[in-house]
């Protein structure tokens, strides 16, 4: 199914000069992976604590901005590993675990906004973890790691960024908080359905290629 992940090759081509520059300066794939995770954790904590005590303002722009930068980091660490012989067993653990930790923290920090249904947000975060675990399980039956959509990591980054943009911009045009809540929670509900479909697709396609 269509997914933003399919744009990855073109995105990587844009980043290749930067990757080569980083390699020449001794930067490793594992360093990039861990750096991105710690920045994600720091930003998540900041946004959660800040918006528990402050109204919505332009600081929230950091969320979609970082999501875009983080996609670049995710591409860079993989390119450093593959193209400059930096692949390792430890790096594989770093890559998968740090993504799950960072993603979960970034999603859950939005619980600071009271009009977002906490249980729904936590359900989406759980399904996101489950979808990644499903993709990682494919090698256990001799298949490649699955990245099937329609709600892969890049897609989730887009939709969560859209939610934060709506939270920031919507009050400028409409002060109806109930309507904003309906829209944001509606997006989360749609994400939940598409995550369930993603899990199904990853299992189905893993079994199909295994047979």
TrEMBL record:
GO CC field? membrane
Q: Give the record's GO biological process terms.
A: phospholipid biosynthetic process
User: What are the recorded GO MF terms, alphabetically?
Assistant: phosphotransferase activity, for other substituted phosphate groups
Provide this UniProt record's keywords sorted from A to Z: Membrane, Transmembrane, Transmembrane helix
One Pfam annotation reads CDP-OH_P_transf
Against InterPro entries, the record matches this protein to: CDP-OH_P_trans, CDP-OH_PTrfase_TM_dom
Membrane-spanning intervals of the chain: 32-52, 58-76, 97-116, 122-141, 157-173, 179-200
Write down what this protein is called.
Answer: CDP-alcohol phosphatidyltransferase family protein
Q: Which organism is it from?
A: Acinetobacter nematophilus
Upper lineage is: Bacteria, Pseudomonadati, Pseudomonadota, Gammaproteobacteria, Moraxellales
């Amino acid at each position: 199914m269509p997914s933003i992940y399919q744009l990855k090759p073109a995105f990587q081509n844009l980043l290749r000069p930067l990757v080569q520059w980083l390699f020449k300066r001794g930067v490793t794939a594992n360093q990039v992976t861990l750096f991105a995770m710690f920045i994600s954790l720091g930003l998540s904590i900041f946004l959660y604590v800040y918006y528990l005590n402050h109204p919505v303002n332009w600081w929230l722009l950091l969320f979609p901005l970082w999501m875009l930068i983080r996609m670049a980091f995710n591409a860079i660490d993989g390119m450093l590993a593959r193209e400059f012989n930096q692949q390792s067993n430890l790096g594989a653990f770093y890559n998968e675990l740090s993504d799950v930790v960072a993603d979960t923290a970034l999603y859950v920090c939005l619980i600071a906004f009271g009009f977002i249904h906490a249980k729904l947000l936590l359900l989406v975060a759980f399904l996101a973890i489950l979808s990644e675990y499903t993709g990682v399980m494919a090698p256990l039956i001799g298949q490649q790691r699955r990245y099937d959509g329609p709600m892969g990591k890049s897609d989730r980054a887009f939709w969560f960024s859209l939610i934060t943009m709506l939270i920031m911009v919507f009050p400028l045009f409409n002060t109806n908080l109930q309507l904003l809540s309906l829209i944001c929670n509606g997006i989360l509900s749609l994400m939940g359905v598409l995550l369930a479909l993603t899990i199904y697709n990853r299992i189905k396609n893993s079994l199909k290629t295994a047979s």
